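Revision sheet: structure tokens.
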Amino acid sequence: MTNQLHDLTAIELREQMLAGEVTAREVSEHFLSRAEALNGELRAFTHLSPECARARVDELEREEGLKHTLPLWGIPIGDKDLDHRAGMPTSWGSRLGSSEPQPESGRLARDLDASGTVSIGKTNCPEFGFPAYTENLIGEPARNPWDTTRTPGGSSGGAAVAVAARMLPCAPGSDGGGSIRIPAAACGLVGLKPSRGRVPGGTGIDQLAGLPVSGPLTRTVEDAALLLDGMIGPRHGDGRAHDPFALDAPHPERSYLAALRASETPRNLRVGVSTWTPWTERMEISWSDGVQDVLERTVSRLAALGHDVLPAPTPERWQGYADAFRTVWQAGGAALPVTDEALEHVEPLTRWLVGVGRQRTAAELAHALKWLTEFEARVIAAYEAFDVILTPILNDVAPALGSFDPEDGERNFEQQCQFTPFTSYVNVAGLPAIALPIAADPLPIGVQLIGRAGDELTLLRLGQQLEREFAWRKRACPLETVR
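Predicted:
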């Protein structure tokens, strides 16, 4: 049985552990062994830590009475290598990162611990998490298990590789401009970007323009609900999130998994379809016939399921987005803890972001932040009449490794925008969005559903309905068929 544990979903693993059919130690050892066997080829992890994982299992075994109350008891995960985990180094995907073990865990890692997870290592990411692909100078690039000559996307690329190759049942990621949804689409996974403020350990509230939030990467929608519950972390006795700045779930159970299981199949949702992107103001944006075909297949299936599928309006006065977003993105680079002397050791894209960002004035940044805040209100107003907005995610299947300009930072940034034209404006608007792996023939192509602020549940419900229709639960990447 144990040699097939990686074929089980996170929920199935949890059910087997609760029933006593398999132990947390057997599960963690199985996934550690699998990660060690495959990581040399795929580089999903920058660091594997059997000793930390085994010490964590020791803790769980001493508190086995909690396994029925902790949502992720015994479930193996990996921490994105931007987040601190006590006992493991944090590289930030950069040669400027540390090789020394961190003395303390960050908030997200602590909340995941409180939910019962077992971290086996740190998942690969690009330098400081800025790029939409996972290639860095500290080692080999992360490789897409559907085709190892291609990128898995980024910046949560290592997490996506680990889940797609079944080195982990699920993994947390973070998303400041698409960094969960991009690798989910490239690797054939479900990727949920929660609303701003939803996950206490990655709310976005404390970040420039409120862009980056933390969320789950999984193979199924139910697993995404389960991991979201775990990432939100401990609750008060009445079920409220244990954080004064976190949003509370808009349903009595305050458990997304419980609410999803209790929900009836959604009927008669108003679904707006959009292929608008604000990047057309600055560059040519196009998408492949395969992306268009998958979008049309999704539209047809939604209509057949009884939903009202209509064109979505374009937000008003969106011209100016590209300049405002670039200014804020560059300001994020300017804020990196990188001295002028250390700039020679970072990658050209980072060097460009830092250099241009530090030339920006306070007035330019203030204007960009104000413009994006007003844009957020216009996006929400444009989508107000719809329960869900349906869009593509990427312009095509995952591109080959090395596709993005390695020397010209500005050109590299433009290529990324062309690759991911539909994701960043959702971060600016603070809205929840979910990537769904509609097709994989032969490479994955997904769609994006954007929800109303605070309404992850509708996205999960509709996502689960589409999962039944497109049957991606049974799908496995080619690497899996020969292992």
